[in-house]
Amino acid sequence: MRVSLFVTCLGDTLFPDTARATVTLLERLGVEVNFPAAQTCCGQMHINTGYGHEAQSLVRHFVETFAGCEVIVAPSASCVATVRTEYPRLAAETGDPALQSAVAEIVPRTCELTELLVDRLAVTDVGAVFPHTVTYHPTCHSLRTLELGDRPLALLRAVRGLELRELPRAAECCGFGGTFAVKNADTSLAIGADKVRAILDSGAEYCVAVDSSCLMHIGGVLDRRHERPRTIHLAELLAHTGATG
Predict the structure, then answer these.
(1) Which domains does the chain have, with CATH numbers?
(2) d(CA 243, CA 185)
(3) Average pLDDT over residues 187-211
(4) Given 16, 154, 199, 245, which residue has the most CB atoms within 10 angstroms?
(5) What is the side-by-side strand order in the sheet with 2-5?
(6) Residue 5 to residue 3: CA distance in whole angstroms
(7) Are 77 and 139 in contact (CB under 8 A)?
(8) Ordered DSSP codes for 66-90
(9) What average pLDDT does range 176-201 have in this prediction?
(10) What confidence tens digit (pLDDT) does each residue in 102-153 have?
(11) For residues 142 and 152, what is the distance between their CA atoms, to the nearest angstrom?
């Protein structure tokens, strides 16, 4: 299989290790990965803040950049959710039939990493080794929009040496919410503190998720509280084939 990596703007600017891990993981499974260099932001931040009209040019750019790609994969549930749920609406609002057709054609070919692994490659054991206690935080977009269900958990359960701990009140938001964390910082941090409390209650060394944005928020709260658990993206965890520090 040949896939095209949608790295996301957050991955490009702040979390390049997640993108590298995604490539490492997929190539280990025999997948050919290419990177369309013209890609930019999916427009999620604009849309979530009420600037849908301004995001329409990004929708056009996305479908032009990834036109002809067999499968598009992103290590970000929220960005994939944006393409799937927001692009059809924004394309319809332009009144441009060509754009609507292009979006309708590209949406089914855009998937989140665990969907690619479990559904399209039919694999849960990716050969990962991670001898640590881990708890999984289902991010809002992965849980409620993409409905990833047990896909991430199935992948984690197959990792050698990993002990999976249940996260109390797992379905609760971490409090990030994109620009919500900026505009409503006190509320965001309060919600984040609740999530960190649940992570501590799990007794896990690591908190794993499929969205770097949520992990950034959780990791920031952990650092400010000087707590020991660390955050790690699922792609980075699955890329491990030996002991970690």
Answers:
(1) 2-120 (1.20.1050), 133-239 (3.40.50)
(2) 37
(3) 97
(4) 199
(5) 32-34, 2-5, 72-74, 110-112
(6) 6
(7) yes
(8) STT-S-EEES-HHHHHIIIIIHHHH
(9) 92
(10) 999 999 999 999 999 999 999 999 999 999 999 999 999 999 999 999 999 9
(11) 10
